[in-house]
Amino acid sequence: MSGQRRLRILVAKPGLDGHDRGARVIARAFRDAGFEVVYTGCHQTPEQIVNTAIQEDVDMIGLSILSGAHTYSFPRVMELLKEQNAEDIVVVGGGIFPLEDIPWLKSVGIKEIFKPGARLQDISDWVKTNVKPRQAMVA
């Protein structure tokens, strides 16, 4: 036993966006890369996403969006994580939105944005390099 648990990743679709093919593809890629994956399905509020992330003790949240609501939902997730003292959960994003929004999204705490066409292997490699298991919660 290595003493280190597998990374736990929450894949979430915030807002009214019902196009979940990309989220399902990345969830499967993460599973195939050896990560534990929790997929919330479509139409999740930022509050639901953060509550699930905390309950499931995830190390990373992957947000997927196509609806254009990234300017609300991504920063709201970051605010809620801060309110819940869970800022150590890494948050990444992907989907389709204006590329000029990427610097702003990173400035609010999103660690990485994966653009359309990003290779699944490259995304998994980024996670393996940049995300570490969170510290065990003290009861």
Tell me what the structure shows.
The protein is 38% helix and 17% strand. With 139 residues, it is an alpha/beta fold. Helix 2 crosses helix 3 (70-83).
User: How helix-rich are the residues, as a percent range?
Assistant: 25-40%
**Alpha-beta content class:** alpha/beta
Given as residue ranges, the uncertain stretches (5+ residues, pLDDT < 50) are none
- E-strand count: 5
Distance between the termini: 24 Å
> Could you tell me the mean pLDDT?
91
The side-by-side strand order for the widest beta sheet comes to 2-1-3-4-5
Q: Name the helix and strand elements from N-terminus to C-terminus, one letter apiece.
A: EHEHEHEHEH
The radius of gyration is 14 Å
User: Count of helical segments?
Assistant: 5
Shape: globular
Describe the biggest sheet?
Answer: 5 strands, parallel
Percentage of residues in DSSP E strands: 15-25%
Summarize the structure.
The protein is of the alpha/beta class.
Chain-wise SSE layout:
Elements: E1 8-12, H1 21-32, E2 36-39, H2 46-55, E3 60-65, H3 70-83, E4 90-95, H4 102-107, E5 112-114, H5 120-130
Parallel strand pairs: 1-2, 1-3, 3-4, 4-5
